[in-house]
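Researcher: Can you fold this with fe (ii) ion in place?
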Amino acid sequence: MRTQSELGHAIEEAREQTDALFRAVRPDSFYERPIPERHRIVFYLGHVEAFDWNLIGRYALDRRPFHAGFDHLFAFGIDPPPGQLPSDRPSDWPSLAEVDRYNQRVRDEIDELIDEVPGQLLHVALEHRLMHAETFAYILHQLDYERKVAPALPPEMETARPPQPRMVEIPTGTAQLGLHGPGLDDTSLDDNATFGWDNEFQALAVDTPAFSMAKHKVTNGEYLEFVRAGAAAPFFWVERAGRWRYRGMFAEIPLPLDWPVYVTHSEAEAYAKWRGGALPTEAQFHRAASLTHKESEANFDFRRWEPVSVHANDSGSAAHANHNGAVAHADSRSRARQPADVGSADGQHPLPNGRGSVEALSQVEALSQVEALSQLAARSQIETPSQLVGNGWEWTSTVFAPFPGFTPFPFYRNYSEPFFDGRHYVLKGASPRTAGRLARPSFRNWFRPSYPYIYATFRLVEP
Ligand SMILES: [Fe+2]
């Protein structure tokens, strides 16, 4: 039987991930606020532990607080409307030594109690921390280079000319969104498909007419044409002596023309309009992702700090999904790729997964749909979009809203609900700094349309 100790091990690994990020901050820089709309760095140092303590120690196990002031101070992040920035001062925050002591006590207490904690709450603590491993990377990205300690970096991929933009056809079909559930008693790592956040429930089938989708994400090189036509430069670019450069996590580099461009939703929409296309809906993204094969070198799960070329994962192959959700290549041209193992714990695309999607269809319908697709793939060697997972979240045109049957978690009512305000858009996929377990098909990310700090890319569709 899968036990809490396995989730405990995953939490341990996630702690190492967040610890490594804080080690990249110079000790004299924890009271900086690199993003004006977010808290100072010291808040995040205390927040991931305070969240765990408030959820597990206080809510689940009703333990007495040992530092109620910190439990409250570090409880909540912020997402202010434009123009309403926080105004606290460094002196409003405790010393790093005090926060470190609090953090260590939280970890000791939780590790002691872990066998008593419901699996769902351990999943929540784990994924909350992993999400902060990404959102804290955004904050770290904006901290001055001289305030950071660069870890050992992987070698940068060579950049090349961007590929010619081209569209691939996505046939009519059903997009399967969300999860059946809620899997309240799940404590398993291998069966992570049953854990989801409140906004992933309930499962939803959406009929999706045929459409064309770009093979690749929009590149810096393509977006540069838009800038030369008068659009403002993206937030991650800077002009030096008449040349555009990319502001990376640890260094500025000449603008890599074949990397995806990081943009806001508003910029992505404006570009799409300029090119005569549109952003995909959330359902269209799911539909396309359900047809694509797993990319073994996909750029996510903390493997790199920066993007890679948009065509780094091109295989030129199509794939089909069988009724178990396993994926096999339908195209003998595919080169040296491992058969995808969807049953593995990384929760990666592709759709459909055996539980969430096929249940909604009858087994026969699912099989016939899959067979038809596989025949189509074999006959015409259809191409599918590249990098629907990894190398940058992708903006959709879908406003973040609940699926029918949405119920907030009683222990975390504000995870999604405050953001169903018509002012946040859904992103899908994953960025280089997204944990593998968060790249499951049903996971939904969302941000304000003008928030420029995130690793958000996009691609075009045509109706
Ligand atoms: Fe948080």
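Model: Folded with fe (ii) ion in place. The longest strand covers residues 393-399.
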